Each structure stands twice: as C-alpha cells, then as structure tokens.
Amino acid sequence: xxxxxxxxxxxxxxxxxxxxxxxxxxxxxxxxxxxxxxxxxxxxxxxxxxxxxxxxxxxxxxxxxxxxxxxxxxxxxxxxxxxxxxxxxxxxxxxxxxxxxxxxxxxxxxxxxxxxxxxxxxxxxxxxxxxxxxxxxxxxxxxxxxxxxxxxxxxxxxxxxxxxxxxxxxxxxxxxxxxxxxxxxxxxxxxxxxxxxxxxxxxxxxxxxxxxxxxxxxxxxxxxxxxxxxxxxxxxxxxxxxxxxxxxxxxxxxxxxxxx
Length: 260
Known about the structure:
By secondary structure, the protein is of the alpha+beta class. Helices cover 26% and strands 23% of the residues. The protein has four helices and ten strands.
C-alpha cells in the first residue's frame, strides 16, 4: 500500500479523479444552491437598538440561498411592529435574534431599592435639548426660576444622572420611532425619567415644584464610560452622607477624561 501511494502515476490519476468529482459533482451542487433565490428581509435605514420597526425601515429582496443563516427572516410580517434588540445598518439582513415582541426594558426591572426611577417635567422644547436626548445618556440638570428669588441653580447632586427615557405627553418613549415629517410640539418629549438615589429624588421633587428643570447632555457613548461619570456622582453622594457624621468633607464630582 505504501508503494502504491509513492507511485507518481497513481497519485496523478487520483488527483485527476478528485478534480473531476469537484468539477462535475460538488461545484454544480454549490452553484445550484447559490443560484436558488430566496426572499429575505433587509434593512433600508439606520435603526437604533430599541426602535419599533415599521414598513419603511425594511424591504423584501431576493438573494442567493447558499450559506444563509438559518434564522434569517424571510417575510416582513415577522418584523414590522417588533423591536430591534441591536443596532442595524442599511443592507443588514434581519435575524430572528435581532428582533423582539416586547418593548425594550429601560431599566425599571433592574431596580434594587438603592436607586429609584423618577420622572420630571420639561417646561419647554429647549429645556429637553430640543428632543435630542436618548435613553442611556448621562445628563446634568439645571434649575431656573427657583423659589421666591427666581434663582438659577446648578445642583452638584444632579451633575451626572442617567436618563432612562424621554417621553411625550402621549406616553411615547424615545425608544419608539418618531415620524420624521411630524414637527408638532406634542410629539416632543414632555417628561424625563431618570435613575437617581433617594437624595437626588428628594432634590428633584423640590426643583420640579419650585422651579424649571433644564437638561444638558454630558456624555453619550459606551456603557463603561457612562458608568465612570455615574460612579463619580455616587461617590459624591456617599460623601454627603459621611459628612453628616463628621467624617469627611464632600467634594464635587470631577470630570471624566479620555475614552468615547
């Protein structure tokens, strides 16, 4: 047997047979599979995570069926009305793992008693950053017309706050896709829901009732960098508690540097 495999004539003949098998058996099968067209759902515009999918965001197209993922969706009926579980770009195929029947969780289910979700009113279009705020943003809250002296405040307790949702007066969160040709004011956010400590919640209730809150965007980006800002705020709030016992002097949160 060893002598047979050392025989150059035998090896050359074996190579020719294998080449013929590939050319006349395997290749036609692969080409047939690739040539067989399948209708799938493809993305037509940028879609952010949590967006409710509408008909104008997707299209049905025919592509070669070879090597398509098993969970690629083949009809827009399985897409429209569902929510994106990941960011999607034009040209992406929609997989069943990238959509969900349920609206995205803005963080309410993860509340553990240490933090609270509180909603505050936006008194004007500009006060809510002209409708440009997004869930997950780190924002700073200012207070205008506060109290009898109509002071403007920059509360250190609200320097870095996580935004859970911006909501219209119709109850539509900013995780839902807005009609881009609808410029009416009633489609703009009228409340902001933020994740805060009990100390911050107490301040917010006071500022809500005795002044006008304005939001400023501090950071939008990776969750790890957002956490750096929020950790600084938590450290400051902890120092307030310690100061009441006479152990330390509160220091305002510093600024996070570096990273995107």
